[in-house]
Amino acid sequence: MKKFLLLGAAVIGLSSMASAQDAQIVYNDGHTYETDAETGVTCKNKWVIDRIHTPEQFMDLQFVKDYATKARTAAIDVEKRRAYIGYSKTAVVDSTSNDYAHLVIFNLETGEYIKELPLTYNGTAINGLLCANQVGMDDYGHLWVCGMYSDVNAKPAQIYVVEDFETGACKLVGEWKLPDEETDAAGRIDYWDVVGDITGVDANAVCMGAVGTTAAGEKLCLYRWELAQGSTEWVANEDDFAGYVSNTDLAETYPDGQVTWGTSAATVKIVAEEGHVGSMFYVDGFTTCPSLYQTSLSMVESFASAPDLAPATGCNGVNEFVLNGDGTEKPYIAYVEAQYNVSPGCRVNICQLGEGMAFEGMRKLWSVPEGGLGEFSDGGTRVHNIAIAKQEDENKKQAAYVFSFKCANGMGLYCIAEDGYIDTWKDGVGVEGIEMDEVIDGEVEYFNLQGVKVANPENGLYIKKAGNKATKVLVK
């Protein structure tokens, strides 16, 4: 018993060092993920800050205290080792309440909080309803920020690139607007995706987004713009579809027969291709599962080929990556299993795709975190952000760093690596594997992950002490 109490004190000590926004120590999720026997690929949690594993640490973050549901998307930069969360911070200025664009910045390697950065353009704070609803990293290392827009004809979507991470100064790099003849296609769009160079300096770029319902009542709508290298004007691609398409053009969904993606819940993920042409893209709606389409609007892949692995509808988030450092191409897909209305909640499934990157033959490898990020309703914002970036070691072995962020529930970083990959990044402090000898027999006791005894544990991860054995358990 005495030794267990010392463990509790040690955990509390770590927690106090890791709490608040000047965190120096963070935890990993404490789970050992089995190596894939077929490929030798491994999965390791580097760190996690969420409602399940580190609730006090997560709830002590200022943006979570203030308005967690307005921090909805995230991006990562493995070169600078930074994670960026877009935060539309609500504040009252001159008696007027408004949202102001902020970044919440973390050390991607360690999970340490760095700072919250207000964003400005020409010396003026960027503001407006959900003005930092989307952040992303393009293929040329530019961190871009854009807001939610209900009508991109009446008010074109303005895209900013962060130029100074000390002052928050941004550059306006363009506007996304539908052609004048398509004003009846205006509709609300919350989330965007970009491939290529969003500034147009070093390459072309493509942007896409999905709309729930347009002003004219069209459903299953998509927007698409292209930026030519050397240009500053984003234009609709008339060769494939002029600005938008509707359900009269795009008829296939999974599950079959869906006529809308939901009012504001649909997300698009453009597939990375040489030349940044954006010829294929995933759409994940509130009523549908992630499905892969071509710009011809025909469906390429869907969970109809892997129904046993299909996620719940009502959650949004998908990404993919390929590991081929050992000469063998291994394609993977990461998608949200379910949101907060299940237990464990807010997990991401990582699966190896079948031959030819097909859904048929897909194998599920891991669900991360094993215990989930949380089960807290974010008020219906739905999107679960999955940001992925690859690294290669000195032996050309590759790893994908998968960053999972769910609004109001938490975040975690996972390293998916080929056999033999040399991982030099730090790991968070876990609480598994500590021997509990010299503990006397007695009744079962529960402690949270900060070492505080809990009389009646419910809905979370706890350390269970029974006699001389301590184990981590999920209480539902």
Commentary on this structure:
- This protein is mainly beta and 476 residues long.
- The two termini are 26 Å apart.
- Strand 4 and strand 5 (113-118) form a beta hairpin.
- The chain is globular and about 75 Å long.
- The chain has a six-stranded mixed β-sheet, with no helix packed on it. Strands 12, 13, 14, 15 and 16 form a five-stranded antiparallel β-sheet that branches. Strands 1-27-26-25 form a four-stranded antiparallel β-sheet.
- It has one domain (26-428): Neuraminidase, CATH 2.120.10.
- It is built from three helices and 31 strands.
The portion of residues forming beta strands comes to: 35-45%
DSSP summary, beta strand count: 31
Largest sheet: 6 strands, mixed
How much helical structure, as a percent, in the residues? under 10%
Structural class: mainly beta
Q: Strand order of the main beta sheet, please?
A: 7-6-11-10-9-8
Q: What's the rounded overall pLDDT mean?
A: 85
CATH class type: Mainly Beta
Tertiary shape: globular
Number of helices, where a helix is a run of at least 4 consecutive DSSP H or I residues = 3
The CATH topology is given as: Neuraminidase
Secondary-structure arrangement, i.e. CATH architecture: 6 Propeller
Radius of gyration: 23 Å
Oligomer class: single chain
Calculate the terminal CA-CA distance, rounded to whole Å. Answer: 26 Å
